[in-house]
Amino acid sequence: MSQREQWSSKLGFILAAAGSAIGLGAIWKFPYIAGQNGGGAFFLIFIIFTLILGLPLLLAEFIIGRSAQDNAVDSYRKIAPGTQWHWVGIIGMVTSFILLSFYSVIGGWIVVYLFKAIVGDLNGLNSDQYAVVFGETISDPMISVFVQLLFILMTIFVVSKGVQKGIERASAIMMPALFILFIILVIRAVTLDGAMEGIKFLLQPDFTKVKSQTILEAMGQSFFTLSVGVSVMVTYSSYLPKTQSLPRSAFSIVGMNIFIVLLAGLAIFPAVFSFNLEPGAGPVLLFNVLPTVFSQIPFGMFFFIAFLVLFLFAALTSAFSMLEIIVSVISKGEPTQRKKWAWIIGLAIFVCGIPSALSFGILGEITLFGKTIFDLADFAVSNVLLPIGSLLIAIFVPVKMKKSTLYEELKRGSSFKKGLFEIWYFLIRFVAPLLILAVMLDVLGVW
Rounded to the nearest 5 degrees, what angle is found at the Cα of 289, between the Cα atoms of 291 and 223? Predict the structure, then answer.
């Protein structure tokens, strides 16, 4: 077997892993979920759960991958031979396959909106006209499938190049560019007339708006936005050398994720409040509301194009990780097999995603349990497969790995204190499973 690939540097791994975490969940989903749940209070609760739930799960996946130095299925086999725990990795592969099949549909929307913005098709429209454009775009079968294919092809191209030359190199360009573009947008947004109301909405908690649903939504968002639960981080950390500090890497990634979520809120809510628009507009917030905002400020289309570019970068860096987990398992770590399997699996995902792409048009009338194909795939991943994967990982680590082994793994390359380890161990063994079960019971309507 050829030598297993590794990240070329600590920064390369952190940027790639942060890119996986910082995707549509942080930039697309967080603003409208926060908008629907009162803003500041939701943001604060989200940060708390990210630290007590998302971070421990992220470290757990890092430990599994780095200690086994193998793909997301064989890592579990190495640690727990002769058991059925490798199904956690298989569930992660299936989840990533389904997730990328409909995630690429949204990625395609970004591509087509970017094209429309560049050629001037979005200039001078009012909010009602933007809504019409969005509806016509996502319901057109040819456009929807074509742009979904373009997004998948970009993902396949990068993953087929390998860990260092593909994923790491692309992330090293896209992630800094994402931060720079976001900061430019935030500066423009917070200097708009009336922007202070949007800033207060995001940063000034109003706990009178907090309901039980708000807490559960924030809890779910905390681990959905960190790419935990699908063993993606098991895969990424398997390319790490033993000298890398896992705690420092995890804190860096969580910090970057919270920072991007903050920037997303500061780029969007001041602009929304400045123009008296609705912060709880829902999933169409970025595609209907933001073009309306940008069209009414000087050089607005330039800023909207910049936003779409960073939105595309975030979507792609997450898509890389979804395809990578499957490719790494099927190719068995053989670099010579990577390109072939990246193309085969990527195109299979595209074909399986076509019904989701057509769910807003010619297949819109086809529903199951009252949901379109797209909504059903989203529900299956977000509300069933991700929580199950997260729960199994939270159980696997303290049950199948010795406590002393876990401590040694976290100490490698770092000065991780025994006290901090005990806190993490308590969170992963007791707190995380209970919180994940709470989310799952809520989804199932038990309470």
Answer: 110
Cβ 66 vs Cβ 245: under 8 Å: no
- What was the pLDDT predicted at 1? 41
* Cα distance between residue 216 and residue 221, in whole Å: 8
Q: SS3 for 240? A: coil
Residue in 82, 123, 97 with CA at minimum distance from that of residue 294:
123
pTM of the model: 0.89
Arithmetic mean of pLDDT, 160-185 = 79
DSSP 300-352: HHHHHHHHHHHHHHHHHHHHHHHHHHHHHHHTTT-HHHHHHHHHHHHHHHHHH
pLDDT > 90: percent of the chain: 40
Length of the chain: 447
pLDDT score of 241: 83
123 backbone dihedrals φ, ψ, rounded to 5°: -75, 140
Q: Which domains does the chain have, with CATH numbers?
A: 10-443 (1.20.1740)
**Residue 110 neighbours by CB under 8 Å, 6+ apart:** 151, 308, 311, 312, 315
